[in-house]
UniProtKB/TrEMBL annotation:
GO terms for cellular component: mitochondrion. The keyword Phosphoprotein does not apply. It comes from Metarhizium guizhouense (strain ARSEF 977). Keywords: Mitochondrion, Nucleotidyltransferase, RNA-directed DNA polymerase, Transferase. GO terms for molecular function: RNA-directed DNA polymerase activity. This is Reverse transcriptase. It is found in: Mitochondrion. Residues 157-427 form the Reverse transcriptase domain. SUPFAM superfamilies: DNA/RNA polymerases.
């Protein structure tokens, strides 16, 4: 009896408890219903759309580095700093970066900075996280009429002298988990993000834009190298890769793809080697001196959970979070794409892909192994390590040959996968893209279902607001990398000469339609029994 009636056998008490539960339940429902019904701005709509992403207050487990376990916050912050920011020292660097070089070309340069260029680099950006001074882009934007000319003069003086101010080189490094990483006891599951002064990031962004434009205009970087470059996206790069594989198929050939990751990436770039690389490429002396100053006398403190360490010097590495780091890293690793068969090289930031084609998979696997060996040898001579654990292999073939030879990386045989993901796009052996469509359609379906649950004929946000959410969230997910696999209703193939044929992709489009219909049902205040043709 006491289990059933913990307050005693009192009918009035039990009825009061039920009434309280009913009132609380109704109040919650009315609160959330009013919150959803009153959505009108893009900000509010996107906020409720992000409810699909769960937020966890999970505390990270103890950290294990080289067999040693660290449990306290301070110990883990120090261990993460040593494992991520101090994995290399200046001992791995060269001594003299100013030796005589003979570049193929000398690039033009002007240290003049216009008021418009300074403004766009400093305040025409998103409101990124501030550095240790807590001055945000919003504050700089409000003060720009008073400080704009002073900032322009500062930037111009830095470019003229080849100098990066000391205050801009102090960073607060936040340790965040990498997406999809579950093994948080390993330091490799954590990514160090440097929070720099917004005023300093304006100067770095200005230099980065100039470097990126010149690198493309003067073909300083490989044509199939992307990331931090204008008009070159990850989807463009994969589309170029898919095109080369299809060309091999049209010639009755097979192909082998190797994806290799640079271990540490930004954190392993060394100052003197970067200076020498820029001089070899023909960059003007003021820019080289600025890059040298940018990487000199850097300091950082680590913020981990609720504690922050003291500032300590950094001997090497580009700060993750700086606008200049991506383009400097591309220039630092530019020789990779001049090794071996250059037409088969593809790169996006620290991800490198090597494509080999041939008559048999044994032939392509042998060529790929030789390419990996050459790449490792070059990395050893230039202080760069390629992570064998992240190396992946994929064979592409329409032939019925069941052999799938492995590719060797540093003595480790890498077995080909059934499907491989590169830059967010799933590739399978016959380039059917079934895996890619299934995975991205499932992600889009989750968001579309969430929006559909918020809307009906009686309650929910305005249809215009939901439509903006569908355009901003559902469609980009559902149609991601469509340029790489969708060939149109008709296309030319080498098997049929110049005759147009209907590609076999209708089954892929059919998998997208249910998700799109679900999203349309969320936008339109219609009944469930409304005929489908009316949607369109």
């Amino acid at each position: 009896m006491r289990r059933i009636y913990p307050l005693g056998y009192s009918k009035e008490a039990q009825l009061a408890r039920k009434r309280l539960q009913r009132v609380v339940r109704n109040a919650k429902r009315l609160f959330w219903q009013a919150l959803v019904d009153n959505v009108s701005s893009n900000k509010d709509m996107f906020k409720i759309t992000r409810w699909t992403k769960a937020r966890s207050s999970f505390q990270p487990p103890p950290l294990q580095v080289n067999g040693t376990v660290y449990e306290t916050m301070t110990e883990k912050a120090t261990a993460l700093r040593q494992a991520t920011l101090e994995r290399r020292t200046s001992d791995d660097d060269i001594e003299n970066p100013w030796a005589d070089v003979s570049p193929n070309q000398y690039l033009p340069f002007s240290s003049h900075v216009s008021a418009e260029e300074a403004r766009k680099a400093t305040i025409d950006t998103g409101n990124t996280s501030p550095g240790s001074d807590d001055i945000t882009v919003k504050v700089l934007r409000a003060a720009w009429p008073a400080i704009g000319n002073l900032v322009r003069e500062l930037y111009e003086g830095c470019l003229t002298l080849g100098h990066h101010p000391k205050a801009f080189k102090e960073a607060e490094v936040v340790m965040i988990t990498k997406p999809g990483k579950r093994d948080l006891i390993s330091p490799r599951a954590w990514r160090p993000i440097s929070l720099l002064l917004c005023l300093g990031k304006g100067l770095e962004r200005l230099v980065a834009r100039r470097l990126a434009w010149a690198a493309v205009h003067y073909t300083m970087l490989h044509r199939q190298q992307a990331g931090a470059l204008p008009k070159r996206s990850a989807v463009d790069l994969v589309a170029a890769l898919v095109h080369d594989i299809k060309v091999a198929f049209s010639q009755r050939k097979v192909a082998t793809l190797i994806i290799i990751d640079i271990q540490g990436a930004f954190d392993t770039v060394m100052r003197n080697r970067l200076i020498l690389r820029l001089r070899q490429q023909g960059w003007p002396l003021p820019l080289v001196k600025w890059a040298a100053s940018f990487m000199s006398n850097r300091a950082a403190r680590v913020r981990y959970q609720d504690i922050t360490t003291e500032y300590a010097p950094l001997l090497c590495g580009l700060p993750q979070g700086s606008p200049a780091s991506p383009i400097l890293f591309l220039l630092y690793t530019e020789p990779i794409y001049k090794l071996g068969f250059q037409l088969g090289r593809f790169g996006y930031a620290d991800d490198t892909a090597i494509l080999r084609t041939g008559r048999t998979l044994r032939e392509t696997a042998k060529l790929a192994t030789a390419d990996v060996r050459e790449l490792i040898s070059w990395g050893a001579a230039n202080g760069i390590t390629f992570d064998p654990e992240k190396t992946e292999v994929m064979h592409f073939s329409h032939k019925k040959d069941d052999t799938s030879p492995s590719v060797t990386h540093g003595g480790i045989a890498k077995v080909p996968a059934e499907a491989i993901r590169w830059l967010g796009i799933w590739l399978d052996k016959k380039l059917t893209f079934r895996t890619h469509i299934e995975k991205w359609a499932a992600k889009a379906k989750k968001v579309a279902g969430h929006l559909h649950g918020l809307c009906n004929t009686k309650h929910g946000p305005l249809p215009a607001a939901v439509r903006r959410a569908v355009k901003a969230y559902v469609e980009p997910i559902l149609l991601y990398s469509m340029e790489a696999w969708y060939t149109g209703t008709k296309s030319y193939t080498a098997w049929h000469g110049t005759k147009k044929v209907r590609p076999q992709i209708q089954h892929l489009v059919d998998k997208l339609n249910p998700v799109l219909r679900r999203a349309i049902q969320a936008i339109l205040p219609i009944w469930k029994t409304t005929p489908v043709p009316i949607y369109y």
